[in-house]
Design goal:
4 strands
Length: 362
């Protein structure tokens, strides 16, 4: 007998567990397409009660949700101020996710979100908001369910959690690498090259002068493409105020960093003990993320699968763009790590400076 197919498993749920409420919230959250899995979703559904109980009680695996800044900030704001209705999309995602997390023992991980906030508004602002996030992320599932289902507009009166001391504004290597790639992508976008030429040049540059930063490359490939729904990927890139253009690129680098963090954790943490999701209201990230988890036996299979995935963006050029990626990966594997000019100790910082000068018009 095949136990995987034929065995039945029954869970006993406490009589006071608000099953119908939690099912409604989980269904709405799943339908929002705001949860990106770093694993193959179970047939029972990504966040169904059955799937989450099976993961926790049978597989003994915890589910960790990486939350982006928009979601984390809204969670903190709700704990501090409550909500105003009607809720916008990201706020609904934040309320539903917190209600589900507290009902089903999911772990929320906001570290990248608060690093982004610290880099934009300073460490003090990030630490203060982190206190309210911690206040939100405590055991009050019924209160969050009531807010999610419109039965209340605020949580029971509470204050900020104890302050934690971190230097969230310190340089963050992964973000810096993503920023370098996106600066190069922005430079190419502003050139007279064709979209296909821009994609080819970016992959060639990563292979010869930098690293193959997969999430940043895929993000740029979507941006370069003639047919993708790419509005907002690089905000203000052509603004007369070139500082605003840089701000847009920096923000895009944070979006990519959420993807790279999901990819890194999913590939390095043992699946048997932890499963990772990314919570984001950003539709572009949800479209790019599956490309990070292409499963292929060899490079030829990967190239074929990648071409199929980017075909809606590139159509007749999809196979060529996929080949640019695999050629770059092969070249990067065969050469030593790139080095900066003599006397340059921080090569990434050096490339950041060059890239910013080009965007500023220097």
């Amino acid at each position: 007998m095949n136990l995987e197919e034929d065995a039945n498993i029954f869970f006993r749920i406490s009589a006071d567990f608000p099953r119908e409420d939690v099912e409604a919230i989980a269904s709405r959250l799943a339908g929002s397409n705001s949860l990106i899995p770093g694993f193959i979703a179970p047939a029972a559904g990504l966040v169904s009660i059955e799937a989450l109980l099976y993961a926790e009680l049978i597989d003994r695996s915890s589910t960790v949700v990486l939350v982006d800044r928009n979601v984390a900030s809204r969670m903190a704001k709700i704990a501090k101020e409550g909500v105003r209705r009607p809720l916008d999309g990201p706020t609904q995602v934040a309320v539903d996710l917190m209600a589900l997390s507290q009902s089903m023992n999911l772990d929320l991980e906001p570290v990248i979100a608060f690093r982004e906030l610290a880099h934009a508004h300073g460490n003090e602002a990030a630490l203060e908001e982190l206190q309210w996030f911690r206040s939100a992320d405590v055991g009050q599932a019924h209160a969050w369910i009531d807010v999610a289902l419109g039965r209340a507009d605020a949580l029971p009166s509470t204050g900020p959690a104890d302050r934690e001391e971190y230097d969230l504004a310190q340089p963050f290597h992964r973000w810096r690498c993503n920023y370098v790639v996106l600066l190069k992508a922005a430079e190419l976008e502003l050139s007279p090259m064709s979209p296909r030429e821009r994609a080819e040049r970016l992959y060639q540059w990563m292979a010869s002068d930098f690293i193959i930063a997969g999430p940043a490359a895929l993000y740029s490939s979507m941006f370069f493409s003639p047919f993708a729904a790419k509005a907002g990927l690089f905000k203000q890139l052509r603004s007369p105020d070139r500082q605003r253009a840089l701000t847009g690129i920096r923000n895009a680098a944070w979006d990519v960093t959420y993807l790279s963090d999901l990819s890194r954790r999913a590939m390095t943490e043992p699946y048997e003990t932890k499963r990772f999701l990314l919570a984001t209201a950003d539709r572009a990230l949800a479209e790019i993320a599956p490309l990070l988890f292409i499963d292929a036996e060899d490079m030829a299979g990967f190239e074929t699968a990648l071409a199929a995935r980017v075909e809606p963006w590139w159509r007749g050029d999809a196979a060529a763009v996929a080949r640019f990626a695999t050629d770059a990966m092969a070249e990067a594997e065969s050469r030593p790590p790139p080095e900066g000019p003599e006397g340059v100790d921080d090569y990434v910082g050096y490339l950041m400076g060059l890239g910013e000068q080009k965007i500023l018009g220097g």
